[in-house]
């Protein structure tokens, strides 16, 4: 017998244990990363509210429970602002409704053609009134986006007529008829749509709604001229940044304030470059800084006197938290403003659901319609001297 045949190669008993330990460590590391990235340990809570104690605000908060109840996002991924932001346009809206509307075309003075889609209510409003929601979508968005279609269908079923602006240049099948597209703060197209609604429906009252960039446009529109607030019951702005200049500074990108020709437009890789090369010049501004200053609603929003609900999310990756001092300060100073800040929701996400799959309707959809319903009810049953458009000081003056 060969002595080499008797050699036995054995594995040290410590090796399997070591491998098992490495596996456990790897699993623990992955779980830790998942917990951190998905923010699973973050608590849920009602929105943080800033407002003044007035009869109107007390009524609105009592009759719009979404503002005072706990917002609970989907358990596995809903506490990640990045995931909510990335998925808001698709997830939960793959089977979104297809509301039937009529496209309207409005010629502008500079040769541009504004378009909006008009959707009639699917039933009577609970107050019996004629109420139209005039809606300004987010950047580059229009009436065919999933989140807009979902919201419009929900509002129609609650008795609202809806008019949705299609941002200039956003619809691929609508050609531009002038050398400009939508911009951060240009209110011309929205004003044209509102004017059309007021002329066509002389008895209707308006609920103004703005999403993201649309929030900047609607607040700027209302603050530019007091006549723009006529027949407006209230305004709701969701996830806007309030100041384009401050937002661009926090964004980490820089654009040289230099003159440019059309060739630079074709090679532009960001909206800031388009704004700097084309849009600021079209609107007569000498620099991008001046353009962003003039286009931001932060310089106009204090002129808005109709009830105003401003909604943001603390984990919105597109709105720096320092920008939130603007709505918080405004709500602390003005009786007509309520600022609601959720812990979660991302940018226009605000999904609700149990564990993995969200509901088609979001917290955002429900809070806008809920707030609008409360405002309409207040106007219908308003006590003397407590209209949504009157300050308590005015009541005191009348009594005096």
Descriptive overview:
With 400 residues, the protein is of the alpha/beta class. It folds into two domains: 48-243 and 296-381, Alpha/Beta hydrolase fold, catalytic domain (Rossmann fold); 249-288, no CATH class. 36% of the residues lie in helices and 14% in strands. It is built from 13 helices and nine strands. It has helices spanning 14-37, 55-63, 81-87, 146-157, 188-200, 213-224, 244-250, 262-266, 271-282, 288-295, 325-333, 363-381, 392-399, and strands at 48-50, 102-107, 113-119, 131-136, 161-166, 205-211, 232-238, 308-313, 337-342. The chain has a nine-stranded mixed beta sheet, with helices on both faces. Helix 2 (55-63) packs across helix 12 and helix 9 packs across helix 10 (288-295). Residues 27-32, 249-269, 390-394 and 396-400 have low confidence and may be disordered.
Outline the fold blueprint:
Blueprint: H1 14-37, E1 48-50, H2 55-63, H3 81-87, E2 102-107, E3 113-119, E4 131-136, H4 146-157, E5 161-166, H5 188-200, E6 205-211, H6 213-224, E7 232-238, H7 244-250, H8 262-266, H9 271-282, H10 288-295, E8 308-313, H11 325-333, E9 337-342, H12 363-381, H13 392-399
Parallel strand pairs: 4-5, 4-6, 6-7, 7-8, 8-9
Antiparallel strand pairs: 1-9, 2-3, 3-5
Helix pairs in contact: 2-12, 9-10
Helix content: 25-40%
Largest sheet: 9 strands, mixed
Please identify which CATH superfamily of the largest domain we are dealing with.
Answer: Alpha/Beta hydrolase fold, catalytic domain
Could you give the order of the helices and strands?
A: HEHHEEEHEHEHEHHHHEHEHH
* Poorly predicted segments: 27-32, 249-269, 390-394, 396-400
Oligomer: single chain
Q: At the first level of CATH, what is the class of the largest domain?
A: Alpha Beta
Q: Which descriptor suits the 3D outline?
A: globular
Q: Report the portion of residues in β strands.
A: 5-15%
Integer tally of domains:
2
CATH architecture of the largest domain: 3-Layer(aba) Sandwich
User: Mean pLDDT, rounded to whole units?
Assistant: 82
């Amino acid at each position: 017998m060969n002595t080499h045949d008797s050699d036995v190669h054995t594995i040290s008993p410590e090796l399997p244990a070591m491998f098992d330990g490495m596996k456990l460590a790897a699993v623990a590391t992955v779980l830790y990363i998942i917990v951190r990235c998905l923010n699973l340990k973050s608590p849920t809570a009602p929105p943080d509210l800033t407002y003044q104690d007035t009869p109107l605000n007390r009524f609105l908060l009592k009759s719009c429970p979404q503002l005072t109840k706990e917002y609970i996002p989907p358990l596995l991924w809903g506490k990640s602002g990045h995931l909510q932001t990335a998925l808001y346009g698709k997830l939960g809206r793959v089977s979104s409704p297809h509301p039937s509307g009529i496209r309207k075309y409005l010629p502008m003075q500079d040769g541009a053609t504004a378009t909006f889609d008009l959707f009639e209510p699917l039933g009577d409003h609970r107050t019996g009134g004629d109420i139209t929601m005039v809606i300004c979508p987010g950047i580059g968005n229009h009436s065919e986006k999933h989140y807009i279609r979902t919201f419009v269908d929900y509002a129609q079923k609650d008795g609202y007529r809806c008019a949705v602006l299609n941002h200039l240049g956003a619809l691929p099948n609508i050609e531009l008829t002038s050398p400009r597209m939508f911009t951060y703060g240009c209110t011309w197209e929205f004003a044209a749509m509102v004017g059309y609604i007021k002329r066509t429906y002389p008895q209707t009252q308006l609920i103004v709604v703005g999403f993201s960039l649309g929030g900047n446009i609607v607040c700027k529109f209302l603050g530019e001229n007091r006549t723009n607030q006529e027949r407006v019951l209230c305004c709701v702005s969701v996830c806007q940044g309030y100041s384009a200049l401050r937002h661009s500074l926090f964004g980490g990108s820089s654009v040289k304030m230099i003159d440019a020709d059309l060739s630079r437009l074709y090679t532009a890789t960001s909206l800031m470059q388009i704004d700097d090369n084309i849009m600021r010049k079209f609107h007569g501004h000498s620099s991008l800084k001046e353009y962003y200053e003039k286009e931001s609603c932060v310089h106009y929003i204090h002129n808005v006197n109709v009830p105003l609900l401003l909604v943001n999310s603390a984990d919105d990756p597109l709105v720096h938290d320092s920008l939130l001092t603007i709505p918080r300060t405004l709500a602390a100073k003005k009786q007509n403003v309520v600022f609601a800040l959720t812990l979660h929701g991302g940018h226009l996400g605000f999904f609700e659901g149990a564990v993995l799959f969200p509901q088609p309707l979001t917290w955002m959809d429900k809070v806008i319609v809920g707030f609008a319903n409360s405002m309409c009810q207040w106007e219908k049953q308003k006590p003397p001297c407590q209209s949504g458009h009157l300050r308590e000081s005015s009541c005191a003056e009348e009594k005096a």
